[in-house]
Amino acid sequence: MYIGGVDNKGLHHLAWEILDNSVDEYINGHADHIQITLHKSGTALTVTDNGRGIPVDIDPKHKKSGLELVLTVLHAGGKFGEVDSGYKTTGGLHGVGASVVNALSKKLVATVKRDGFEYQQSFAKGTPLGKIEKIGPFRGHGTSIYFEPDDTIFKHVKFDSDTLKARFEDTAFIHSGLHITYKNEVTGETIELANPGGLSAYLTKLVSDAQKPGVTEAIFSANRETGDRIEVALQWTESTEEVYRAYANGIRTPNGGTHENGLKSAVRKAINSYIETHDIKVKGLKLTADDIREGVVAVLSVFLRDPMFESQTKNRLTNPEMEATVDNFVRPALEAWLNNNKTAADAIVGRIVLAARAREASRAAVTEVKRKAPGSKRLSLPGKLADCKSTNWEETELFIVEGDSAGGSAKQGRNNVTQAVLPLRGKILNCEDQTTLKALANQEIADLVTAIGTGAGDKFHYEGLRYGKIILLMDADSDGCHISTLILDFLFRHMHELVKKGHVYLAQPPLFRINVGKETLWARDDAHKAEIKAGLRANAKVEETRFKGLGEMDAKDLARTTLDPKYRILLKVDPENGLDADQAFQELLGKDAEHRYKFIMERAEHADAESLDV
């Protein structure tokens, strides 16, 4: 509930919680330096700031120090509900972050320097190992948190240095006056991060990394210091994607929120106002919001007194007033910039018009095809496709399965009114660094594209989509994961609109069947199996079956666990950021093997060699 899961993402969320507390000290003018140390084991972090230091006085009501309250009691953070707390804005919610990190750590040591002394207290799984101790006199102030995540809770407890560095770099850009030192004792490197260029420099880096040139060299940037602080930097590029990095009180909100919605609205209104003011003719075209924002790369940072997030993981800002606040600030500022930079503005409008014409041309081509070939929606489909009866794409699903054997089970277990099944033979072509024409020369890929109905590459037309959900249903083993990755790469590169608009899903078939008496339980993987068995009675009679493939499952079992919407679990393919996804595919599937070698070597100790089906 508080960190989003016990996977790698949840593990790193512990680091973000402690980091955010230190950043809050900077935001409110009490610190200017944060040092993070990844210790030699790779499983422990220390975060140190030169802020005021967590209070250590004994609370008369609870008979505990302020430090112990902050680290062991939910909603006890000193930043919340106190008029004189000294915090104008914070990244926290209700004072739960530090105590949650403590509860999920097998060891946590807090060191505080304030009021001329150094204090320390140790904890294990959220429980104090003793009272707070006064170590001795100390000149200076600040807080240092050392913690080791609990390996009985998390699947893996090794921190990923690249993930840490990326977050620290983001933080240094967002807070242009903050100095961050990252010491990696595993590799021996020390990195100093300070970016006085702020969001404009950050935007330049994002555009450069994406390797999509800007429409103009000039970028739009603006900031407001009064009231809720707002800072924004924005540029149109030649990319067909729009990319937003939105932050609230210094915390990345990958799922956007009201502040990001306000920015999108402001961009649309400002462009329309410029076109109307200068009487620019776009004869025969109706510019949509998607046309206007195509290619936009933007960074937005807001600071507000009482942030409201969708959950403790803070992925989405929900303060309703922020949409209008951002809109009302950015729109007139962007309008003024466009009017004062007419050459750049005209180039941007020209790029928008081209996007609109491309969309209209695509729609016209689809309409012409449908006019000339009525009823062609069901013609020329792959022979092995078991299609569904419904032609309403909003309710239909296409299951892409691995092999004819699994396809047979899926065809028998499906609801043939709304569910179609397309078996693919083996591993498809690796389409990273391949042209669409080369990819479509592969029969399995050609069948896939034909079944979906949209075409691919520059011939992709969204209006041809035949299924609302495209679900990858592969065996729950390493080969199945590999095939899913290859298909995802093809869809991301050559049919990206399907991913962007949320049509692609991953099914979650079971790898194990566990019979306990008359009861049957299903486990997705080894970790899930261990979790299930841990909850059984000590003397329970257990029969365990591992499926070699989906073809071994009865059609009724496959329907119950994986096909039936009442019982199944689907994972929606929704990259938090297109730039990050692009980099991941390039590193894992691209021609340069160096990244894969590094990826494998760093994770080799976690590999379960015994489970490989060789």
List the helices and strands and how they pair.
Layout: H1 8-27, E1 33-38, E2 45-49, E3 58-59, E4 64-65, H2 66-72, H3 97-103, E5 105-114, E6 117-124, E7 127-128, E8 133-137, E9 142-149, H4 161-174, E10 179-184, E11 189-193, H5 198-210, E12 220-224, E13 229-236, E14 243-248, E15 251-252, H6 258-277, H7 289-293, E16 296-303, H8 321-340, H9 342-372, E17 397-402, H10 403-413, E18 419-424, H11 436-440, H12 443-452, E19 469-473, H13 478-494, H14 496-500, E20 504-507, E21 512-516, E22 519-523, H15 526-534, E23 542-546, H16 555-563, E24 570-572, H17 578-589, H18 594-603
Parallel strand pairs: 1-10, 14-16, 17-18, 17-19, 19-20
Antiparallel strand pairs: 1-2, 2-9, 3-4, 5-6, 5-9, 6-7, 6-8, 10-11, 12-13, 13-16, 14-15, 20-24, 21-22, 21-23
Helix pairs in contact: 1-3, 1-4, 2-3, 4-5, 6-8, 10-16
Summarize the structure.
The chain is an alpha+beta fold and 614 residues long. The protein has 18 helices and 24 strands. Mean pLDDT is 85; it is low at 79-95 and 368-379.
Describe the model:
The protein folds into three domains: 8-193, Heat Shock Protein 90; 198-359, Ribosomal Protein S5, domain 2, CATH 3.30.230.10; 376-509 and 570-611, Rossmann fold, CATH 3.40.50. Mean pLDDT is 85; it is low at 79-95 and 368-379. The chain has 18 helices and 24 strands. It is α+β, with helices and mostly antiparallel strands.
